[in-house]
Specification:
single chain; alpha+beta; Ubiquitin Conjugating Enzyme; globular; Ubiquitin-conjugating enzyme/RWD-like protein; UBC; UBQ-conjugating_enzyme/RWD
């Protein structure tokens, strides 16, 4: 994707987020086309309700939106969650194998809110210590294994 289209897409997304962001999502910093910081509040009546605010860092390559942004939580607001490692890396399929160029930053934020909302117990992933010791700085350099639920009809 050319640099002009990349900038045009991010300009539109930033304008849309500024004018009509999803409930609980706000812009902390978005001064360029490389890195944004967004504040995501947990949904009401969940373990991460509004008082627990998480800051996410979005890093965009010139290939965005054909390539997903790098998305991480940053200190000191990394939530304790079974799909969030203590280094801020998020194990969420739409950020990797299920990315689609039609998705937007706002939709990613809503997916993160939904992931947080569905949590029933605040705990780190079982392999947190091992992962954090061996992980690269970017979660996009990780080969993620996503669990598939299989339902059988009787």
């Amino acid at each position: 994707m050319s640099s002009g289209l990349f900038k045009k897409r991010l300009t539109k997304e930033l304008r849309d987020l500024s004018a009509n962001s999803p409930e609980g999502v706000s812009i902390e910093e978005a001064n360029d086309f490389k890195r944004w910081q967004l504040r995501i509040k947990g949904a009401p009546n969940t373990l991460y309700e509004a008082s627990n605010i998480c800051i996410t860092k979005f890093r965009f390559s010139p290939s965005y939106p054909l390539e997903s942004p790098e998305v991480m939580f940053i200190q000191p607001s990394i939530p304790i969650h079974p799909h969030v490692y203590s280094n801020g890396h998020i194990c969420l399929n739409i950020l990797y194998k299920d990315w689609s160029p039609v998705q937007t930053v706002a939709q990613v934020c809503l997916s993160i809110q939904s992931m947080l909302s569905s949590c029933v117990k605040k705990e780190l992933p079982p392999d947190n210590d091992l992962y954090v010791k061996s992980a690269r700085a970017s979660p996009k350099k990780t080969t993620w294994a996503f669990q598939v639920n299989i339902f059988h009809l009787n």
